[in-house]
Task: structure prediction
Amino acid sequence: MRKNIIISGVGGQGILTMAAIIDLAAMNLGLHVKQAEVHGMSQRGGAVESHLRISSEEIYSDLIPQGKADVILSLEPMEALRYLPFLSPEGVIITAKEPYKNIPNYPDETELLKTVEKSTAHVLVEAALLARQAGSPKTYNIVMLGAASPYLDIDPRELEQAITHYFSSKGEAVVNMNLQAFRLGLSNNPN
Amino acid sequence: MDNRDKQLLLGAEAVAQAALDAGISGVYAYPGTPSTEITEYIQQSPQAKETAVRSTWSTNEKTAYEAALGMSYAGKRSLVCMKHVGLNVAADAFMNSAITGVHGGLVVVAADDPSMHSSQNEQDSRVYGKFAMIPVMEPSNQQEAYDMVRCAFDLSEEMQLPVLLRIPTRLSHSRSVIGRSEIRPQNPLHPVTDKMGWVLLPAIARKNYQLLIDKQPKLVALSDASIFNMERPGEGNKAVIAFGIAYNYVMEVITTYRLNIPILKISQYPLPEKKVRQFAERYDSILIAEEGYPVYEEWLKGYFGNDKFRGRLDGALPRMGELSPDALARALGVEAEAPRDIPEIVAGRPPMLCDGCGHRDLFEAINRALEIYPYRHVFGDIGCYTLGALPPYNTISTCVDMGAAITMAKGAADAGIRPAVAVIGDSTFTHSGITGLLDAVNDGSPVTFIISDNSTTAMTGGQDSAGTGKYVDICKGIGVDEAHIRTIIPLKKNLEQNVAILREEFDYEGVSVIISQRECVQTGVKHRKKKAQQQD
Ligand code: SF4
Result:
């Protein structure tokens, strides 16, 4: 088993939390994990990404080679496209539909979504809506994790366990809300 | 793979955990990407708390290094961590600690930032190791980083030298599953007995330098015997010498494309002479893969240039920037499919100041205040506020090194620029700004120094700042006239008043300090959360 996943978004959107949960689930399954993340300057509202690799074999490079990512999991549609050079020909983009506009020259939204649809296999998610349904806009990233889970080759139950573990210090209510967000994201899936 | 008893750690955290397990008594550091997480991990570690490992932040890398050396003098093990450019600040202590030698194990971590993700240059710390003539270790992955730290402490105590551990951003900021070794107790207090050996008077320094030179053959022999320097056999007359993390990229390419190229992996320096010589003699063409500068490529090629060594100097690999599996694939002649392009619709999204950041209101006030002057030069420094150089503010004119805002503004004032304005963060001011301020006071320089005080080291994630609550007293103590130490609160509603204060001080022909005080919104959120938790 081998999965290369690029998680992308804007600094502060919560991509490291998603990565940490996938890491945890993969580690519990006895898999090899490598996950490169961005700290420092670009965390300030800039484009950020994490290269996440899980495999039953030893993993060497911390960075995914170009054209070898199986999944781009993005919290934001334009950020999904930024990492297209990494996506394999069979790869899939799973992205939230909601743009994050903190730059003056943000492109036209309809055009942007069309570009995503044209570029490759894709799943578009109404993440903000589902997060509100789950109980808090803050669960946005966990909704996206749920939507991506069928493409990660990890049993959703393992991911749920990792979510429970990750949020356990914040109390049962927060755990349940995030589990709900995960399930809403998962059931949003067209397949 | 059995992951029980294993931990998922960033490379930086693996170094920290290894140092704790190897029995350090203290860590000394000033925050700097990509090294910050080492010290943060120790600060939060229950194991460190139980064994009373000291870990508060130092004021700068030099004070950190010297304190670590003092702990080593006392016979205990110490770790000192910094980003690559931090080693410039600590360089005086670093170079001379090779001459004094160490007593308790001393490991220096330099976290390099090739591609300058969050830095002003991409200098290669291995050059410093060579310069100081001490052993350097350069792990290829996170587990090796963990394992090496203990070996580095042992090596340091065996050879009585500091050992430099060099980790690049990719290794430091990437997580992997780490297996740990047993925990070793700290050294007991047993100070140096030969005190004269530590007094670098010329006569003693010469003797010590000779000792350092005499240790070199042993260091080379240790490198030759090191398990971290090893050969991976293959076929053909082309080969690779891969240093540190470059080994991973080479292995990625080799396993993906099923190549069978011989590799010599090097992770411990000085260069293992025998291994390199025997390996190099066997092949016609050798790719030198180094993360950072082509340090050993230059060396192996020699002054007259031996063409069989290829790498960053002849364009086989890019001359600058961090390596990648893609760069190595091209250098090894793999024809990979052309990747997809980034669609044109994608716009750049550079980092920017947070919404509600106090620096924003400060820049607005400075811009307004400067409107009436012929010169609009604002000497800047290193921190979130460097982003004030970009639109929409375009306020900051320079960013060079820690503390340079103060002294460059002074020099510009000496040359005749009026007003000469400097903006420096609180943490940067205590790191390297105070001495420059004293110069300005002694010279009576007409400069306005603005300390943008957000009560934290914000850029690296909100570490405690050394001078919080002390700035007025520091400036008074240095001799700034009290009437020209002003405090402003950078808020929209204070704009007019702040502009007036700035202009008053711009017009003053002497040293003024304006302390612009507002907490960083990011640490503000953290503090409020902490408080709320304590009240629960
Ligand atoms: S982290 Fe703090 S100082 Fe830095 S931009 Fe954000 S609010 Fe401003």
Q: What stands out?
A: Strands of chain A lie at 2-10, 32-36, 47-55, 69-74, 87-96, 121-125. Residues 2-188 of chain A form a domain with the Pyruvate-ferredoxin Oxidoreductase; domain 3 fold (CATH 3.40.920.10). The longest helix of chain A spans residues 172-187.
